[in-house]
Amino acid sequence: MEVSTEFVMPKGFQAAGAHIGIKKDTDKKDLALLVSDCPAEFAVALTTNVVKAAPIIWNQKVDQAGKKIKAIVCNSGNANACTGSAGIAHNEEMAAQTAACLGAQKNEVLVASTGVIGVTLPIDVVKAGIQKVAPQLKSYAPAGIAAAEAIMTTDSFAKYCTIQTVIGGKIVTITGLAKGSGMIHPNMATMLSFVLTDATISKALLHKALIDSVQVSYNMISVDGDTSTNDMVAVLANGASGAAEIVEGGADWKNFVDALNAVNTYLAKSIARDGEGATKLLTVTVKGSKNIQEAQKLSKSVVSSNLVKTAMFGEDANWGRIVAALGYGGVAFDPTKISVQMASDAGVVSLLSSGEPCDFSEDLAAAVMKKKNIEVLIDLNDGLSWATAWGCDLSYDYVRINGSYRT
Amino acid sequence: MEVSTEFVMPKGFQAAGAHIGIKKDTDKKDLALLVSDCPAEFAVALTTNVVKAAPIIWNQKVDQAGKKIKAIVCNSGNANACTGSAGIAHNEEMAAQTAACLGAQKNEVLVASTGVIGVTLPIDVVKAGIQKVAPQLKSYAPAGIAAAEAIMTTDSFAKYCTIQTVIGGKIVTITGLAKGSGMIHPNMATMLSFVLTDATISKALLHKALIDSVQVSYNMISVDGDTSTNDMVAVLANGASGAAEIVEGGADWKNFVDALNAVNTYLAKSIARDGEGATKLLTVTVKGSKNIQEAQKLSKSVVSSNLVKTAMFGEDANWGRIVAALGYGGVAFDPTKISVQMASDAGVVSLLSSGEPCDFSEDLAAAVMKKKNIEVLIDLNDGLSWATAWGCDLSYDYVRINGSYRT
Questions:
Q1: A83, A190, A285, A388: the active-site residue
Q2: Which CATH number applies to A13-273: 3.40.50.2020, 3.30.2280.10, 3.60.70.12, 1.10.418.10?
Q3: Is this complex scored with an ipTM above 0.95?
Q4: Measured between CA atoms, how close is B256 to chain A, in angstroms?
Q5: Which residues 6+ apart lie within 8 Å of B234 measured at CB?
Q6: Which CATH number applies to A281-403: 3.40.190.10, 3.30.565.10, 3.30.160.150, 3.10.20.340?
Q7: Residues B337, B308 contacting (CB under 8 angstroms)
Q8: Which of A319, B30, B147, B156 has the least CB density, counted as fewest CB within 10 Å?
Q9: Is there a shared CATH topology between the A13-273 domain and the A281-403 domain?
């Protein structure tokens, strides 16, 4: 299913994003609000990092309560992670202030924070900022784009997309916004991603759709092998489309799942493409695997390898590193059976065939590697399953960005 | 136990190293021979990478045969990995040629190769080279140093050390030589490291000493998270000291194990310090752990984090990244109990105390980070076990070196 790169606001949602003073640069927005006019069902996938930021702990509680919610508040420039007991209190104040501005309860508000770890949140700035931004809530697209901009940290572009399709007899809109772009190596959860839809669906089914989708989208990208303390994806469904409720198994369910996957995959690829310092999007597909889980493990091992990533940056068809990364991926396979190809708009070059190195054209390999979108195709020749992972190259700029992030 | 940074040749061993034409630069040695005058007991630890280079497959067979050996032949500049059936044949020819020059059997020769993966070994050059180098075998130190130089790839200095101690009533010498410096993230095995000793010890006991030692030395370093296809460590013990045979449990056994650990730890730290592009040695100790295995997992997770490594390069006391890396290390712990300090010759700075961020001096932190040897001290406050891991920072030069390694 194809996404639109436009931002279309689903029915019954409003958004806002503005600079409130957490980031030093006044041109950079740092607070986003996403609000549903009526209470919305929601599902979340939260980081598996043992060290969880204050908003993650809060959202776990809100999720366990099982009630509908009204809003998401998200600040950038400060992760409110490793901030001790003060951080927990500040997070609750963020939820309470947002609720007060919306006439809601604090446990109807999800909270997200992203930015530097271990610095106390300037809570007075944040509370005043929420009061300033809440009156700016609007249901048109520029307000949604402003929200997408306000959750950025080292991202170089705002990430959002939309799908509209007929579900339950009505046009349903699914719109997602997300941010990267460092500490990206999701594990059973993701970086920040918010998906809004006016579809009508139960919490249980929304949760099932989200968890399945996360496995093949956000969990299949890596920028640097570091899993964040603040990872989360949240999907809100408010039913404002007036569509009939989605039930499991039918055509509407399949349609919704396909649309949600398309939105999540688009956002995940955007995050990989915009990895810190990235100059190329790297797509690694492992096929011929005995099962999907092994194909996922191997494709992620290759896409996460620093040596593969630096070779991509150097535009060097160093396929030995690809094979080495397969080999330590934690899956048993027969090295004498595997084949490796690289491809881009410039063509396809075969590097290894059934375990024997190919006598390939260095000129063709160089032409293939020069492009911005590089595909690595690995065939284990041992089954019918496959998986795709996305990542980026490792450049001087990754080192520059992260050598001086905090100060 | 303190090592000497001199190269002292153990009794009954000879070495040689020279340029034979695998590397383009004629100033760079690329073939090493290590030979025992009499057959020596040996033990090896080989890579756990599923994709094993031809020499690894060969050494497995030699090891399983259980007989004593006479020599190690090692080339640099070509890994003879992913070279298909031709690579297997070339490796056997290397062993046979070495054996022929020494009047030995080919299954008395261990083989090691290091360098680029997936390029056919120029076997005629290698065989002629072995014939050229064998007559240069000498028992004095410069020959050993030449061998240490001949196994280097992107290493910036040759790595070797010696311990002499009284075992079995005689002076016993243990001398190790090793190479890094990329694709370093050993897993139950190591990069290339050869340890020679004139101690008298059975194969079973030598194996036990090696496997235990590898766990706390080579397996606790990481340069880039990539586990090589060619990793190996081999220990040869020829008994030429005339010392009584070491038996398990006594003072001699303890002395030998301590000395072997000291040699291996010194070489492992040298490899970390000389990681590709490294400007700093990073030492991460996790204490207060329930058991050693968990402390090892957590300390390796921190030392392997790209974000921690770039912060080190940028001399930025970004301790939040340390805590994030602990959190995804695969071990459950209580984040509200942990403390984090950084230390160097310039002092000690406390960053996190029992889960609460410290109000630390940025000036002191900057002074600590400016040094070449940075220690990170983490206390889980949950037990009595500890472990140390070693690594290096991630610099522009890592990207430069690996962006253009193959070509």
A1: A190
A2: 3.60.70.12
A3: no
A4: 32
A5: B42, B43, B44, B59, B72, B110, B112, B193, B194, B195
A6: 3.10.20.340
A7: no
A8: B156
A9: no
